[in-house]
Amino acid sequence: MKKIKIAVAQIEVFDETDKNVKKILDFIGRASFKNADIVCFPESCLGDSVLDIKSQRIKKIQEKCKKESIYCIIGAHIKDGNKVFNSAILINRSGKIQYIYKKIHLFPKLDLKKTFPGKENRVIETDFGKIAIIVCWDFAFPEDIRKLSKKGAQIIFCPSYLLNEAKISKEVFRSYPITRAFENLVYFVTCDAFTDEVLGESYVCSPLKILNKIKNREGIIFTELDLNKLVRLRKSYDGLGEK
Fold this sequence. Notes:
By secondary structure, the protein is α/β, with parallel strands linked by helices. It has 5 helices and 13 strands. Strand 5 and strand 6 (97-102) form a beta hairpin.
């Protein structure tokens, strides 16, 4: 297994969808310039507008991924039938939408006002390894993450929009990434937004330590992950054994 490079783009999210698209395209270019295999953006990074999955705005991002030969994960409110889902969209190097994850665990009093919960999730095969995607408050439900790790996920991406108005200690939010990485023996990646109303902290964690982070600013961080190390760790620690 080769080493892979991931990018986490902690960006400011605006009310105007087109403004967000422009920024996302710029950061995809930055990630590609540094030879990243995948770049993750925050939850709802396209804004609060409800979009069709065939929207021209999403199409622009697909075309950029194809041009730069890079995977990306973007967050959007996607209409499916007569329902709206808080979704994370995986676009592959060919510019194709490979997977759409619909957030399962909606945050009380916030998500529930405007979106419906998803029902299922799965592990996705990419050309650099097996990944899974969850969204924000999903990370508070360890049983679901355990299922993904036992199905073979090596890297779990968690686009987030961690609102301060949730009235939960920042230390609680900060504890989740490294805890989920350790207990599941996976690389765990969070990507928050940068605005006045959110935590504004993103983390890349191995099972044993925080590898990289960005706090209180807009920017992009790059981290090299070695999947061979993960294999060795899983042989050393029976963290996924039956209990």
